[in-house]
Amino acid sequence: EGAAAALRAQAEEATARATALESEKAAALARVASMESDSAAAAAANEETTAALRAEVEAAEKGLDIAEGTGYTLWAMHRLLPVLAEACLWSGQLDRAEAVGVRIREHAERIDHRIGRAWADACDALIRWKRGDPEGSVEQMLSAANKLEAIPMLWPATRLRRQVAGRLAEMGRRDDALA
Fold this sequence. Notes:
Elements: H1 2-34, H2 39-69, H3 73-90, H4 94-111, H5 114-130, H6 134-150, H7 154-170, H8 174-178
Helix pairs in contact: 1-2, 1-3, 2-3, 3-4, 3-5, 4-5, 5-6, 6-7
């Protein structure tokens, strides 16, 4: 029992670190956006973002090893795997993100868990976009956002809808993006 509590504490610590790294990543991305005209500053901020993403992947993988090693598959699927998939996605590790999405889906199907299926759907849609099919990804993103919203997982659904608006704007569908 003491070992399980220690492992649980380590898993919670890894999740807290991944959450802190998520905040660092968001701050670095905001700095990149504000420095677009200054290429040297933007390059430095981009390097900082990449380093934060690598650290986020590492922290999530450590937490995942602990969680899955102690039987906390549900928690790993719900909390750690989505963080890992997103960090892989934004750092350009699309094959790795896809593998994590498959892992989320496998866990979700095994225990019939709709949050896991919604996360996996969101991952598939975002990978499709990053692989150069923004038009095809829009409907997938909307479907995943609807599923997340129905749970209700409102913050992730909102973030995904923001991606939909961005893809629509990129495709010249400004009115649809603003709707």
